[in-house]
Design brief:
about 240 residues; mainly alpha; Four Helix Bundle (Hemerythrin (Met), subunit A); 2 domains; two-stranded antiparallel sheet; 13 helices; about 60% helix; elongated
């Protein structure tokens, strides 16, 4: 049955501006022409004629694409397709004080999932010197580290090194943005608190498995290592 409520009648109203629509059209046009990195895009006058709007609107839409890092100006070539700095744009908005509770929880969960899932990359790329570096990091931790739910510096040092070992630069950059949000959510009271913190596999235990175990053992161990955090998310 058709939705005849007021909400159903009004939801079809297009609230986007002309520049919003032209921006989307430009992206669609550039994709349809299968332009690659470094390729020049059509001139403003050509784009205005193709889309049927003024050059002023085209210019404003192109400015948005430049701000997103999708195009840039090159000498003698005009505007060309470029690879956007996705983390440069994302990091500006990844401020825990500016995110709503749902997004904060989602980011908290995302980091947990990433760290459980990195096992195969770690075992494929880890070297002897990486094991030695991880051993050095855990030597600096207190002997009761398996009783401590969260220590910012330990997390930065140990987990940051794991991301480096994966060799995945995108994951490493993402982790740097996730960690402040993770810390904020941990301290904020947004998550329910467990009745009592139970013992879990320490960083030292994780290194032992990296040196002598398997990816599957590491996945299970990392899940156990993060278990107190999962307990605050899941009923």
């Amino acid at each position: 049955m058709p939705d005849t409520t007021m909400r159903g009648v009004l939801k079809a109203i297009d609230t986007s501006t002309l520049v919003d629509r032209v921006e989307a059209k430009l992206v669609e046009l550039l994709q349809s022409r299968q332009l690659k990195l470094g390729d020049s895009i059509p001139k403003e006058v050509e784009l205005a004629e193709a889309i049927g709007v003024s050059r002023t609107v085209i210019r404003e839409a192109l400015l948005r694409l430049r701000m997103m890092g999708l195009i840039e100006s090159k000498k003698k070539k005009g505007a060309v397709i470029t690879s956007p700095d996705i983390f440069g744009n994302l990091s500006k908005s990844m401020n825990p004080h500016l995110l709503d509770d749902r997004t904060l929880r989602d980011v908290f969960e995302l980091r947990l999932v990433l760290e459980v899932g990195m096992a195969d990359l770690l075992f494929h790329r880890i070297r002897r010197e990486d094991i030695d570096a991880l051993r050095e990091i855990v030597r600096e931790e207190p002997p009761d580290a398996e009783d401590r739910l969260f220590n910012v510096q330990h997390e930065i040092d140990f987990h940051g090194r794991l991301y480096e070992i994966t060799g995945n630069e995108t994951m490493r950059k993402f982790q740097k943005m996730l960690l402040p949000v993770f810390e904020y959510v941990h301290q904020s009271g947004l998550l329910k608190k467990p009745a009592a913190s139970k013992k879990f596999i320490s960083h030292k235990g994780l290194v032992d498995i990296l040196e002598n175990g398997t990816p599957e053992e590491f996945r299970n161990a990392m899940r156990n290592h993060l278990d107190n955090h999962y307990a605050r998310l899941l009923d």
